[in-house]
């Protein structure tokens, strides 16, 4: 198999059901999920200790799901059978609920970082947020699998939760943003707080 095909030399790429410019909003959206998948792979390499078996296994599962989401976003073919489903969102919500209990209560915004592994997960969180913005832009102009947008939204919350758990398991405190007001009560953000 040849790694290069020369079919993209004019700035076009193949999608499911056609070809698009490489800077098309659809390509940006699924391309960001591919980028996110790579950052998740980097984070996995920093979580090799047995105390992270649960998180590491979940991240590998998420890598497969990101491929599914990317495939769904790359489909311009009308009868394409979407792969992303609501079970994926339910799983993330269940894990988030568990991890919120494990980590110390949070009152203020925190800075990304603490341990190296937690910092790597915060990178995943911010790339997921960018992916979410790009999916929203795509949705405004094109039909998409709505599950993908919900999944990526929940995924960034999941990354935030596990970044805090990783610091906790490492015995490293989260670094609070020093000018933050108290914005969380019992682990949840206060409604109508604009500071």
Report on this structure.
This protein has 195 residues and is mostly helical. The chain has a single domain, classed as Hypothetical Protein Ta1238, Chain: A (Up-down Bundle). Helix content is 56%, strand content 8%. The protein is built from five helices and six strands; from the N terminus they run ββαααβααβββ. A two-stranded antiparallel ribbon has the order 1-2. The protein has a two-stranded antiparallel sheet with strand order 3-4. Helix 1 runs antiparallel to helix 2, helix 1 runs antiparallel to helix 4 and helix 4 packs antiparallel against helix 5. The chain is elongated and about 50 Å long. The termini are far apart.
Oligomer status: single chain
CATH architecture: Up-down Bundle
User: Low-confidence segments, ≥5 residues, pLDDT <50?
Assistant: 189-195
CATH superfamily: Cobalamin adenosyltransferase-like
List SSEs in N-to-C order.
EEHHHEHHEEE
If you average the pLDDT, what whole number results?
90
Give the radius of gyration.
18 Å
Report the CATH C-level class: Mainly Alpha
| Structural classification | mainly alpha
Helix % is 55-70%
Q: What is the count of DSSP helices, taking H or I runs of 4+ residues?
A: 5
| Total separate domains | 1
